[in-house]
Amino acid sequence: MSDAGPTSVRARRGRTTPLGRRAALGLCAGALGQVVSGHNAPANAAEALAQTCRILVAGPAGGRLEIWATLLAAALQPALPAGTMLQQELVGGEDGVTGANQFATRVPPDGNTLMLAPGDAVLAWLSGDKRAHHGAARWLAVAAGVVPAVVVARVGLAAGQPLRVGMAGTVGRDLAALLGLELAGFAPTPVFGVLDRTAAGQALAGGAVDAVLLRGGDLSADLAALATHGAAPIFALPAAAPDGVDRAMPELADFIRHLGGAAPAGPLYDAWRGVAAAAQTEFALVLPALTAAPLVALWRQAASQAADLPELRAAFPGISVVPAPAAIALTDAMAPDAAAIAELRAWLAVRLNWRPA
Fold this sequence. Notes:
The chain is built from 14 helices and 12 strands. It is an alpha/beta fold. It folds into 2 domains: 185 residues, Bordetella uptake gene, domain 1 (D-Maltodextrin-Binding Protein, domain 2, 3-Layer(aba) Sandwich), CATH 3.40.190.150; 128 residues, Periplasmic binding protein-like II (D-Maltodextrin-Binding Protein, domain 2), CATH 3.40.190.10. The strands form 3 sheets. It has a 7-stranded mixed sheet with strand order 1-3-2-4-11-5-12. The longest helix has 15 residues.
Protein backbone atom coordinates (compact mmCIF):
# COMPACT_ATOMS: atom_id res chain seq x y z
CA MET A 1 0.00 0.00 0.00
CA SER A 2 2.00 2.93 -1.20
CA ASP A 3 1.09 6.54 -0.62
CA ALA A 4 2.22 9.29 -2.92
CA GLY A 5 3.00 11.60 -0.02
CA PRO A 6 1.76 14.97 1.13
CA THR A 7 0.91 16.51 -2.21
CA SER A 8 -2.37 18.41 -2.07
CA VAL A 9 -4.65 19.71 -4.79
CA ARG A 10 -7.74 21.84 -4.18
CA ALA A 11 -10.66 21.30 -6.51
CA ARG A 12 -14.10 22.87 -6.44
CA ARG A 13 -17.14 20.68 -6.80
CA GLY A 14 -17.57 19.50 -10.38
CA ARG A 15 -13.89 19.50 -11.33
CA THR A 16 -13.26 15.85 -12.15
CA THR A 17 -12.90 13.40 -14.98
CA PRO A 18 -15.46 13.37 -17.83
CA LEU A 19 -17.14 10.33 -16.32
CA GLY A 20 -17.52 12.07 -12.97
CA ARG A 21 -18.80 15.27 -14.59
CA ARG A 22 -21.52 13.52 -16.57
CA ALA A 23 -22.59 11.47 -13.58
CA ALA A 24 -22.62 14.55 -11.36
CA LEU A 25 -24.88 16.43 -13.78
CA GLY A 26 -27.29 13.54 -13.77
CA LEU A 27 -27.26 13.46 -10.00
CA CYS A 28 -28.05 17.15 -9.78
CA ALA A 29 -31.02 16.77 -12.09
CA GLY A 30 -32.36 13.73 -10.25
CA ALA A 31 -31.82 15.23 -6.84
CA LEU A 32 -33.97 18.29 -7.47
CA GLY A 33 -37.18 16.34 -7.36
CA GLN A 34 -36.17 13.70 -4.81
CA VAL A 35 -34.27 15.33 -1.97
CA VAL A 36 -35.97 17.59 0.55
CA SER A 37 -34.63 21.10 0.90
CA GLY A 38 -32.09 22.11 3.50
CA HIS A 39 -34.83 24.07 5.32
CA ASN A 40 -35.96 20.76 6.84
CA ALA A 41 -32.62 20.45 8.67
CA PRO A 42 -32.53 21.37 12.37
CA ALA A 43 -32.30 25.16 12.59
CA ASN A 44 -29.37 25.17 15.03
CA ALA A 45 -27.36 22.86 12.77
CA ALA A 46 -28.15 24.92 9.67
CA GLU A 47 -26.99 28.07 11.44
CA ALA A 48 -23.79 26.43 12.65
CA LEU A 49 -22.79 25.15 9.21
CA ALA A 50 -20.32 27.32 7.31
CA GLN A 51 -21.29 28.74 3.92
CA THR A 52 -18.42 26.80 2.36
CA CYS A 53 -17.83 23.21 3.51
CA ARG A 54 -15.32 20.76 2.13
CA ILE A 55 -14.74 17.10 1.53
CA LEU A 56 -11.14 16.14 2.23
CA VAL A 57 -10.50 13.36 -0.30
CA ALA A 58 -7.83 10.95 0.92
CA GLY A 59 -6.53 10.20 -2.56
CA PRO A 60 -4.84 11.74 -5.60
CA ALA A 61 -6.20 13.86 -8.44
CA GLY A 62 -7.70 11.69 -11.15
CA GLY A 63 -8.23 8.77 -8.76
CA ARG A 64 -11.38 6.80 -8.17
CA LEU A 65 -12.10 8.62 -4.90
CA GLU A 66 -12.12 11.98 -6.68
CA ILE A 67 -14.94 10.73 -8.90
CA TRP A 68 -16.83 9.49 -5.86
CA ALA A 69 -16.33 12.84 -4.11
CA THR A 70 -17.87 14.73 -7.02
CA LEU A 71 -20.80 12.33 -7.21
CA LEU A 72 -21.45 12.53 -3.49
CA ALA A 73 -21.12 16.31 -3.37
CA ALA A 74 -23.75 16.64 -6.11
CA ALA A 75 -26.05 14.23 -4.28
CA LEU A 76 -25.65 15.90 -0.88
CA GLN A 77 -25.92 19.50 -2.08
CA PRO A 78 -29.74 19.81 -2.34
CA ALA A 79 -30.23 18.64 1.26
CA LEU A 80 -27.87 21.25 2.72
CA PRO A 81 -28.93 24.73 3.87
CA ALA A 82 -29.50 27.15 1.01
CA GLY A 83 -26.29 28.74 -0.22
CA THR A 84 -23.96 26.09 1.24
CA MET A 85 -21.15 25.17 -1.14
CA LEU A 86 -19.07 22.00 -1.11
CA GLN A 87 -15.40 22.01 -2.11
CA GLN A 88 -13.02 19.10 -2.57
CA GLU A 89 -9.44 18.96 -1.32
CA LEU A 90 -7.35 16.09 -2.68
CA VAL A 91 -4.57 14.86 -0.39
CA GLY A 92 -2.00 12.10 -0.79
CA GLY A 93 -1.87 8.75 -2.52
CA GLU A 94 -4.21 5.89 -3.38
CA ASP A 95 -4.02 4.11 -0.01
CA GLY A 96 -5.41 7.18 1.78
CA VAL A 97 -2.93 7.21 4.66
CA THR A 98 -1.67 10.79 4.16
CA GLY A 99 -5.20 12.17 3.82
CA ALA A 100 -6.44 10.28 6.87
CA ASN A 101 -3.49 11.56 8.89
CA GLN A 102 -4.28 15.14 7.94
CA PHE A 103 -7.93 14.63 8.82
CA ALA A 104 -6.95 13.30 12.25
CA THR A 105 -4.47 16.05 13.08
CA ARG A 106 -5.69 19.21 11.31
CA VAL A 107 -9.48 19.09 10.99
CA PRO A 108 -11.51 20.59 13.86
CA PRO A 109 -14.82 18.92 14.80
CA ASP A 110 -16.91 21.88 13.63
CA GLY A 111 -19.02 19.90 11.16
CA ASN A 112 -17.72 21.82 8.15
CA THR A 113 -15.19 19.23 6.89
CA LEU A 114 -15.85 15.61 6.01
CA MET A 115 -13.33 13.05 4.83
CA LEU A 116 -13.69 10.51 2.05
CA ALA A 117 -11.21 7.68 2.66
CA PRO A 118 -10.69 4.16 1.26
CA GLY A 119 -10.66 1.01 3.36
CA ASP A 120 -6.94 0.66 2.56
CA ALA A 121 -6.20 3.50 4.99
CA VAL A 122 -7.82 1.48 7.77
CA LEU A 123 -5.88 -1.67 6.81
CA ALA A 124 -2.64 0.31 7.17
CA TRP A 125 -3.68 1.49 10.64
CA LEU A 126 -4.87 -1.95 11.79
CA SER A 127 -1.64 -3.60 10.65
CA GLY A 128 0.55 -1.13 12.53
CA ASP A 129 1.96 0.74 9.54
CA LYS A 130 4.02 3.45 11.19
CA ARG A 131 2.88 6.02 8.63
CA ALA A 132 -0.70 5.72 9.88
CA HIS A 133 -1.40 8.21 12.67
CA HIS A 134 -5.17 7.95 12.49
CA GLY A 135 -7.84 5.43 13.37
CA ALA A 136 -11.40 4.54 12.45
CA ALA A 137 -12.35 4.79 16.12
CA ARG A 138 -12.20 8.59 15.70
CA TRP A 139 -14.58 8.64 12.73
CA LEU A 140 -18.31 9.43 12.80
CA ALA A 141 -19.76 7.69 9.76
CA VAL A 142 -22.03 9.60 7.38
CA ALA A 143 -22.11 7.14 4.45
CA ALA A 144 -20.03 4.34 2.97
CA GLY A 145 -19.48 2.52 -0.29
CA VAL A 146 -19.55 -1.26 0.18
CA VAL A 147 -17.95 -3.73 -2.22
CA PRO A 148 -19.11 -7.38 -2.10
CA ALA A 149 -16.37 -9.93 -1.51
CA VAL A 150 -16.24 -13.71 -1.30
CA VAL A 151 -13.57 -16.31 -0.55
CA VAL A 152 -13.36 -18.98 -3.26
CA ALA A 153 -11.49 -22.25 -2.83
CA ARG A 154 -10.96 -25.62 -4.45
CA VAL A 155 -13.77 -28.06 -3.74
CA GLY A 156 -12.99 -30.84 -1.29
CA LEU A 157 -10.61 -29.03 1.04
CA ALA A 158 -10.76 -30.28 4.63
CA ALA A 159 -10.10 -28.39 7.85
CA GLY A 160 -6.48 -28.73 8.92
CA GLN A 161 -5.30 -29.12 5.35
CA PRO A 162 -2.53 -26.85 4.05
CA LEU A 163 -3.63 -24.50 1.30
CA ARG A 164 -2.09 -21.71 -0.73
CA VAL A 165 -3.84 -18.36 -0.63
CA GLY A 166 -3.31 -15.85 -3.43
CA MET A 167 -2.42 -12.39 -2.13
CA ALA A 168 -1.29 -9.13 -3.69
CA GLY A 169 1.17 -8.41 -0.89
CA THR A 170 1.88 -8.86 2.79
CA VAL A 171 -0.75 -6.44 4.09
CA GLY A 172 -3.91 -5.74 2.14
CA ARG A 173 -7.49 -6.80 1.49
CA ASP A 174 -6.48 -10.44 0.95
CA LEU A 175 -5.77 -10.71 4.68
CA ALA A 176 -9.51 -11.25 5.06
CA ALA A 177 -9.08 -14.57 3.22
CA LEU A 178 -5.81 -15.66 4.84
CA LEU A 179 -6.83 -14.92 8.43
CA GLY A 180 -10.40 -16.14 7.90
CA LEU A 181 -9.17 -19.52 6.62
CA GLU A 182 -6.80 -19.86 9.55
CA LEU A 183 -9.64 -19.13 11.98
CA ALA A 184 -11.61 -21.85 10.17
CA GLY A 185 -8.91 -24.41 11.02
CA PHE A 186 -6.89 -24.54 7.80
CA ALA A 187 -3.13 -24.08 7.47
CA PRO A 188 -2.96 -21.28 4.90
CA THR A 189 0.25 -20.15 3.23
CA PRO A 190 0.37 -16.89 1.27
CA VAL A 191 1.36 -16.81 -2.38
CA PHE A 192 2.26 -13.22 -3.20
CA GLY A 193 1.97 -11.40 -6.51
CA VAL A 194 -1.71 -12.12 -7.21
CA LEU A 195 -2.47 -8.48 -7.86
CA ASP A 196 -6.12 -8.19 -8.82
CA ARG A 197 -9.41 -9.99 -9.40
CA THR A 198 -8.44 -11.20 -12.87
CA ALA A 199 -5.10 -12.55 -11.68
CA ALA A 200 -6.79 -14.23 -8.71
CA GLY A 201 -9.21 -16.08 -10.95
CA GLN A 202 -6.43 -17.16 -13.29
CA ALA A 203 -4.21 -18.37 -10.44
CA LEU A 204 -7.03 -20.42 -8.93
CA ALA A 205 -8.11 -21.86 -12.27
CA GLY A 206 -4.52 -22.72 -13.17
CA GLY A 207 -3.77 -24.47 -9.89
CA ALA A 208 -1.17 -21.96 -8.70
CA VAL A 209 -3.21 -21.31 -5.53
CA ASP A 210 -5.99 -23.07 -3.63
CA ALA A 211 -8.01 -20.09 -2.41
CA VAL A 212 -8.48 -16.39 -3.23
CA LEU A 213 -10.56 -13.41 -2.24
CA LEU A 214 -12.71 -12.13 -5.11
CA ARG A 215 -13.99 -8.60 -4.68
CA GLY A 216 -16.30 -6.50 -6.82
CA GLY A 217 -19.74 -6.35 -8.36
CA ASP A 218 -21.37 -9.08 -10.45
CA LEU A 219 -19.06 -11.98 -9.72
CA SER A 220 -21.41 -14.49 -11.33
CA ALA A 221 -19.38 -14.89 -14.55
CA ASP A 222 -16.13 -15.35 -12.61
CA LEU A 223 -17.68 -17.90 -10.28
CA ALA A 224 -19.25 -19.84 -13.14
CA ALA A 225 -15.89 -20.03 -14.92
CA LEU A 226 -14.11 -21.14 -11.73
CA ALA A 227 -16.73 -23.82 -11.11
CA THR A 228 -15.53 -25.58 -14.25
CA HIS A 229 -12.06 -25.75 -12.65
CA GLY A 230 -13.36 -27.30 -9.41
CA ALA A 231 -13.59 -24.15 -7.30
CA ALA A 232 -16.55 -22.66 -5.44
CA PRO A 233 -17.31 -19.84 -2.99
CA ILE A 234 -17.05 -21.01 0.62
CA PHE A 235 -17.91 -17.88 2.62
CA ALA A 236 -18.78 -14.24 2.00
CA LEU A 237 -17.47 -11.24 3.88
CA PRO A 238 -20.20 -9.84 6.09
CA ALA A 239 -21.09 -6.38 4.78
CA ALA A 240 -22.69 -7.34 1.43
CA ALA A 241 -23.43 -10.45 -0.59
CA PRO A 242 -21.97 -10.45 -4.14
CA ASP A 243 -24.28 -10.49 -7.14
CA GLY A 244 -24.55 -13.99 -8.53
CA VAL A 245 -23.99 -15.57 -5.10
CA ASP A 246 -26.76 -17.10 -3.01
CA ARG A 247 -27.84 -14.46 -0.49
CA ALA A 248 -28.01 -17.24 2.10
CA MET A 249 -24.33 -18.03 1.56
CA PRO A 250 -22.59 -18.42 4.92
CA GLU A 251 -20.36 -15.85 6.48
CA LEU A 252 -17.19 -16.96 8.25
CA ALA A 253 -18.88 -17.87 11.54
CA ASP A 254 -21.45 -20.06 9.77
CA PHE A 255 -18.73 -21.66 7.65
CA ILE A 256 -16.74 -22.57 10.76
CA ARG A 257 -19.82 -24.07 12.41
CA HIS A 258 -20.54 -26.02 9.21
CA LEU A 259 -17.05 -27.54 9.47
CA GLY A 260 -17.88 -28.67 13.00
CA GLY A 261 -16.01 -25.94 14.84
CA ALA A 262 -17.18 -23.74 17.68
CA ALA A 263 -18.53 -20.29 16.99
CA PRO A 264 -15.53 -17.96 16.59
CA ALA A 265 -14.88 -15.44 19.34
CA GLY A 266 -12.04 -13.55 20.90
CA PRO A 267 -9.62 -10.80 19.90
CA LEU A 268 -8.33 -12.36 16.67
CA TYR A 269 -11.85 -12.92 15.36
CA ASP A 270 -12.70 -9.29 16.22
CA ALA A 271 -9.58 -8.27 14.33
CA TRP A 272 -10.71 -10.35 11.34
CA ARG A 273 -14.06 -8.53 11.37
CA GLY A 274 -12.15 -5.23 11.18
CA VAL A 275 -9.98 -6.46 8.30
CA ALA A 276 -13.03 -7.83 6.47
CA ALA A 277 -14.93 -4.56 6.86
CA ALA A 278 -11.95 -2.56 5.56
CA ALA A 279 -11.55 -4.97 2.62
CA GLN A 280 -15.15 -4.25 1.60
CA THR A 281 -14.97 -0.48 2.02
CA GLU A 282 -14.70 1.38 -1.28
CA PHE A 283 -14.99 4.60 0.71
CA ALA A 284 -16.08 5.90 4.07
CA LEU A 285 -17.52 9.43 4.29
CA VAL A 286 -16.95 10.54 7.86
CA LEU A 287 -16.89 13.46 10.27
CA PRO A 288 -14.33 13.84 13.07
CA ALA A 289 -15.11 12.64 16.58
CA LEU A 290 -16.69 15.26 18.89
CA THR A 291 -18.66 16.90 16.05
CA ALA A 292 -21.87 18.32 17.55
CA ALA A 293 -24.80 15.91 17.34
CA PRO A 294 -27.11 18.27 15.37
CA LEU A 295 -24.45 18.67 12.67
CA VAL A 296 -23.86 14.93 12.52
CA ALA A 297 -27.62 14.47 12.15
CA LEU A 298 -27.76 17.05 9.34
CA TRP A 299 -25.07 15.30 7.28
CA ARG A 300 -26.53 11.86 7.95
CA GLN A 301 -29.97 13.03 6.90
CA ALA A 302 -28.53 14.39 3.67
CA ALA A 303 -26.64 11.14 3.04
CA SER A 304 -29.73 9.04 3.72
CA GLN A 305 -31.67 10.91 1.06
CA ALA A 306 -28.76 10.93 -1.39
CA ALA A 307 -28.21 7.16 -1.11
CA ASP A 308 -31.70 6.57 -2.56
CA LEU A 309 -30.91 8.42 -5.80
CA PRO A 310 -30.83 5.94 -8.69
CA GLU A 311 -28.10 7.95 -10.41
CA LEU A 312 -25.78 7.42 -7.44
CA ARG A 313 -26.58 3.71 -7.22
CA ALA A 314 -25.85 3.32 -10.94
CA ALA A 315 -22.56 5.25 -10.96
CA PHE A 316 -20.44 2.20 -10.08
CA PRO A 317 -22.46 -1.01 -10.57
CA GLY A 318 -21.99 -3.53 -7.81
CA ILE A 319 -20.98 -0.98 -5.17
CA SER A 320 -23.69 -0.16 -2.63
CA VAL A 321 -23.81 3.35 -1.15
CA VAL A 322 -25.17 2.98 2.38
CA PRO A 323 -26.05 5.71 4.90
CA ALA A 324 -26.36 5.33 8.67
CA PRO A 325 -26.95 2.98 10.43
CA ALA A 326 -25.24 0.56 7.99
CA ALA A 327 -22.30 2.95 7.52
CA ILE A 328 -21.94 3.25 11.30
CA ALA A 329 -21.86 -0.53 11.68
CA LEU A 330 -19.14 -0.73 9.01
CA THR A 331 -16.87 1.87 10.64
CA ASP A 332 -17.51 0.34 14.09
CA ALA A 333 -16.29 -3.01 12.77
CA MET A 334 -13.17 -1.30 11.39
CA ALA A 335 -12.35 -0.03 14.89
CA PRO A 336 -11.86 -3.13 17.07
CA ASP A 337 -10.58 -2.71 20.60
CA ALA A 338 -6.92 -2.50 21.57
CA ALA A 339 -6.70 -6.20 22.42
CA ALA A 340 -7.89 -7.20 18.94
CA ILE A 341 -5.47 -4.81 17.23
CA ALA A 342 -2.56 -6.08 19.33
CA GLU A 343 -3.51 -9.68 18.51
CA LEU A 344 -3.66 -8.92 14.79
CA ARG A 345 -0.26 -7.26 14.78
CA ALA A 346 1.27 -10.14 16.74
CA TRP A 347 -0.27 -12.63 14.29
CA LEU A 348 1.12 -10.67 11.33
CA ALA A 349 4.58 -10.68 12.89
CA VAL A 350 4.56 -14.44 13.49
CA ARG A 351 2.75 -15.64 10.37
CA LEU A 352 3.99 -13.16 7.77
CA ASN A 353 7.13 -11.78 9.41
CA TRP A 354 5.49 -8.35 9.18
CA ARG A 355 7.72 -5.65 10.60
CA PRO A 356 6.29 -2.22 9.74
CA ALA A 357 8.97 0.27 8.78
